[in-house]
Amino acid sequence: MEQETEAYVSKAAALMACVLMTLSYVGILYAPTLILRLPPPASLKHYLIRRFICAAISSIISLIFSALILPIRSWETSNVLGVYGIRADHMWQAAVFPLFLTSLMYAGSMVLKSLLLLNSWTTDMNNSGGLSLGCIKIVLWSLRAQMFAVASNILAWRNFVVAPLTEELVFRACMIPLLLCGGFKINTIIFLCPVFFSLAHLNHLMEIYSAQNFSLLKASMIVGLQLGYTVVFGWYASFLFIRTGHLAAPLIAHIFCNYMGLPVLFARNRGLVSVAFVAGMVAFLWLLFPITRSDLYNDRTNNRRCFHGYCSWN
Asked: Which positions are catalytic?
């Protein structure tokens, strides 16, 4: 992880490209009202759909922009997509292993959710006179209703589809190959790339500032917590992308983290939650490098002029 990749793009050009993509990702969200002078959206749904379209356009622009800068030697579709980690090979490894690794950080959260769910089921069974076919039907119907509620929730589409996909495309798939081809060390990229990722979330400051009755202190504390979380997650997502060379790895981790929220460290009168959290973190650190070995996700791991062959994809 300490190697320095051979430079095919100047470091200044790589950094400037990352800055421009960050500004584009945030700025285009405000283009409909500030540039196109469109009227304010009539509802939250229309507002988010407009933002979905803007984020998609920004992602496409970033993909094209970075492709023009990267020294891609073969313009076959599979090769170009492979530069961005968009691959069909080793898909199950890129999905299952990072998901399992990420879930270890949420061992405490999952134990707490399981305990609450068990208590709820126990209460329902007691009210219905024990376990019966009717009780099972009620539970299944409740799960089905929750799934439909999530699928029809516009905020769920933002948190679990649009935001993870567009953010991983821009801040991992586009930026990391550029920084690698700029000759930056791997460790430097892992810690540098999340800086752009966190800066892209500064646009929430004014929104939260208004929501908090124009309290700058409260808004700054909330945004500061968000930035800290995005930086830490950005380190992890960048690590996954570089180690696996597969965009699916950080994408699935991103979706899972958005679903789970912040990890639960402890819960009142439930010491098992803290034990599970500590055990999960120990297991996470123990498996971090073994479960992200490059050979688990790639057939070719030798004769690459830069990491995962981003600069000389043959």
From this structure: 167, 201
Beta-carbon count within 10 A of 294 CB: 15
Which of 309, 306, 86, 99 shows the shortest CA–CA distance to 183? 306
pLDDT digits (tens, 9 = 90+) for 121-155: 676 666 665 555 666 666 667 677 777 777 778 98
Dist CA 37 CA 112 (whole Å): 48
Tokens of 147: 């799934």
**Which residues have C-beta within 8 Å of that of residue 97, sequence separation ≥ 6?**
249, 291, 292, 296
> Comparing C-alpha atoms, which of 223, 139, 215, 184 is closest to residue 18?
184
**pTM score, two decimals?**
0.86
Q: How far is CA 70 from CA 14, 52, 130, 170, in A?
A: 9, 27, 64, 14
Q: Dihedrals φ, ψ of 184, to 5°?
A: -70, 150
